[in-house]
Amino acid sequence: MHHERVLIAGAGIAGLTLALTLHEIGVPCVLFESVRDLKPLGVGINIQPNAVRELEDLGIGEAEMDEVGIPAREWALVGLNGKDIYSEKRGKLAGYNWHQYAVHRGKFHLMLYRKVIERLGPDAVRLGHKVTGYRKHADGSVTAQVHKADGSSVEFAGALLFGAEGIHSEVRAQMHPDQPDIHWGGTIMWRGTSRGVPIRSGSSFVGLGTSRHRVVIYPISHPDADGTADINWIAEKTYDDTHDWTKSGWFREVHLADFAHDFADFVYDWLDLPALLQASEVVYENPMIDRDPLPSWVDGPVGLLGDAAHPMYPTGSNGASQAIIDARVIGRLMLEHGVSQEMLRAYDAEMCGPVGGLTLRNRGAGPFGLLNMVEDRCGGEFENIDDVIPAKERAEFMLAYQKAAGFARDALNSAPRTIPQGARVETVTA
User: Fold this and answer.
1) What pLDDT does 250 receive?
2) Regions of the chain short of the pLDDT cut 50
3) Cβ pair 16, 164 in contact under 8 A
4) DSSP output for 274-310
5) Virtual CA dihedral for 379, 238, 206, 308, nearest 10 degrees?
6) What confidence score (pLDDT) does residue 241 get?
7) How is residue 317 annotated by DSSP?
8) Residues 6+ apart with CB under 8 A from 184
9) Which of 354, 304, 411 minimizes the C-alpha distance to 49?
């Protein structure tokens, strides 16, 4: 019966959501995760309304989301002079049927992991198991080659294999051995969380500065009795081509003194950024990297999703959201085509091209492109933003991004469920 199950490489947000989706529609699966112990990485991410809708359909409601984050009320861009460039309401305040959530990434990740264990059983996730490659078979099935933490190797057979193990995916590397190197656009990010009093609406996502020198701030918890919450911050600076970004590790711990001086002037009557940075216990450094879009996410019985398929700049707050959508689309297409290569071909045709376009849009600054426009038109200094970019043009720019990212309000609110309630895959075929 092992040929009926789906194999999933990677127990991150993409892989765990896929496992929950497959369980929902009656498809057996097993996940392989390289780390021996999942630990909550303490940074913030946003889950857009289109993905929150899918989580609710999976039985993860507002009460549980409130335990790992807070509904976002506002998205705003502010110039380096402290004056507003653009702002809009978010989630239900903007007329969506679902919230947008700003969450603690680690707490959200572990919540999904617990759901998988509760629903699929303790053997559903094999920790300390790294998928290093795969073999395709004449009968249409696939074997995953797995290296275990104890140094041994083992193979697992399945109907399909999904690579969901992130930007350094081994499955992707085998599928596309000639893929270009990781792309770096010149920006280094420093990330941390601090206790502080939320600004503006009390749950605002604020991008402050210029396209080359900015900070992003938003709370990822509800305030305590003293009015303070966990504030996620990302400080970003763009360098010239001579900067050696390869010395920046992925979530490498660094000292504030390495970069804080570049943000010493970010002090306003409503924000003291240097003080916020000083309140952080741990600071991480990341290069802002992605990969060029792929011509295909599929190789016979093998598919990609999440960052393994489309690693993208975090400029649109939709990397995690897109991973969730990937998993749900896979579930919908399995209901139509079964657990088959035909399903994978349909998934590839529907998702690969459009999401590749979204990756390039994010590489071009995504919604932060408004900052580029301000710099191009006035050098970043203005008294009245309407004299630089009229309100209608700003709104049209943001709507175009929302449509590309799949969370334009009216279309989302009127869309049927991705997976009908109670739907099950009747047959499992290779």
Assistant:
1) 60
2) 1, 430
3) no
4) HHHHHT-S-EEEEEEEE-PPPS-SEETTEEE-GGGT-
5) 140
6) 66
7) S
8) 245, 287, 288, 289
9) 411
